[in-house]
UniProtKB/TrEMBL annotation:
Species of origin: Candidatus Desantisbacteria bacterium CG1_02_38_46
Protein name: Oxidoreductase
Family matches, as Pfam families: GFO_IDH_MocA (PF01408), GFO_IDH_MocA_C3 (PF22725)
GO molecular function, one term: nucleotide binding
PANTHER family linked to this entry: CONSERVED EXPRESSED OXIDOREDUCTASE (EUROFUNG), OXIDOREDUCTASE
Signal peptide: none
InterPro entries: Gfo/Idh/MocA-like_OxRdtase_N, Gfo/Idh/MocA_oxidoreduct, GFO_IDH_MocA-like_dom, NAD(P)-bd_dom_sf
Record-annotated GFO/IDH/MocA-like oxidoreductase domain positions: 132-250
Length: 344
């Protein structure tokens, strides 16, 4: 099949270290034919690496008729205007997260893509994370029973002082890191619209945006999700803690463990009102079936490469778009709601 000709817009941490490397890992499917960046040294580096054309600005790159897919990897506050300009020029677009800094801009991006008849996807690559896929699989299996609570914790301790700590550039942990975590949370939450609680704080960052985020998602008939993303936790918790009526799961991106039991094997019990014989609390041995585990080192899934593998199938074989802009809009809705509730 014909390679997809790519233009990378922005050669910073994301454009160069993530998208550039992923595209470079799929040489049979993609070819970088153009890049643009304000930094001359970055442009020259890309010319040598990809043997491509380079441009100072987006408008010049979009005039390159070879470019079929524009990857928008510019600062967050530029995502919406850059993506809309690319769509209007006749390019398909992959936009870095966050999709936009306002929900209304996300809606305009979706409207533009539909009007122009072009594909718009958002780089929610964490849907392809092997640990997330395994957590989904275990929950879907029913082994853990009804899921009562899913705790997600992305924690560490450290300061930042780059542009992503400044509100004027759409920075902050909620806009920056949380789109990945919120996207995973909403995938696990299901189709219902969640009631959201959010608390935001500025703690260690040198900028004026948030770097400590607490979000709770709840709805009748849905599992509650407790999400924490913080820069002020010197003793990091498990990334995953799933609590069910028949078992539970814990772990991180490297390894997961879960155990469960068959409720039919529990002895029959009735509520008693008389004193216990030995003045103790009720207790019994739960007949755990077994403890299972997963290790990243033994996982054969393609990881975030799966995003571009699936996108290629969409562009060349008309396959269903895996990361739809509507699903990314749901993340934007949650983020905007959190900004309102969190007061930052």
């Amino acid at each position: 099949m014909e390679k997809v000709k790519v233009g990378i817009v922005g050669l910073g941490r994301s454009g160069w270290d993530i998208h550039g490397k992923l595209i470079g890992s799929l040489p049979d499917k993609y070819q970088v034919v153009a890049v643009c960046d304000a930094d001359k040294n970055r442009r020259e580096e890309a010319e040598k690496k990809f043997n491509c054309r380079s441009y100072l600005d987006l408008s010049s790159l979009l005039k390159n008729e070879e470019v079929e897919l524009a990857i928008i990897a510019t600062p967050s506050h530029l995502h919406a205007p850059n993506a809309i300009e690319a769509l209007k020029s006749g390019k398909n677009v992959v936009c870095e997260k966050p999709m936009a800094t306002k929900l209304s801009d996300a809606d305009l991006m979706i409207e533009t893509a539909k009007r122009e008849g072009k594909i718009l996807s958002v780089f929610h690559n964490r849907r392809y994370s092997p640990d997330f896929l395994k957590v989904k699989e275990v929950i879907k299996s029913g082994k853990l029973g009804r899921i009562v609570l899913i705790k997600m914790n992305w924690s560490g301790f450290g300061r930042r002082w780059d542009w992503q700590t400044l509100k004027k550039f759409g920075g902050g942990t909620l806009n920056n890191t949380c789109p990945h975590a919120i996207d995973q949370a909403l995938q696990l939450f299901g189709e219902k619209e969640p009631e959201i609680f959010c608390h935001l704080e500025r703690t260690l960052t040198l900028g004026d945006a948030d770097d400590h985020v607490k979000v709770i998602f709840k709805a009748e008939g849905a599992s509650m999700i407790d999400l924490e993303v913080t820069s002020t936790c010197p003793y990091p918790h498990d990334m995953w803690s799933v609590m069910g009526t028949q078992g539970g799961l814990r772990g991180n991106a490297q390894e997961l463990h879960w155990k469960y039991f068959d409720p039919a094997k529990l002895p029959a019990r009735e509520v008693e009102t008389k004193p216990t014989p030995d003045r103790s609390y009720n207790s019994e041995q739960i007949p755990w079936e077994q403890e299972e585990s997963w290790e990243l080192s033994k996982d054969a899934s393609p990881g975030q490469l799966g995003f571009y593998i699936d996108l290629y199938d969409t562009l060349r074989n008309n396959a269903f778009l895996a990361i739809t802009p509507e699903s990314a809009r749901r993340v934007m809705w949650a983020i905007e709601r959190c900004h309102h509730l969190g007061g930052m």
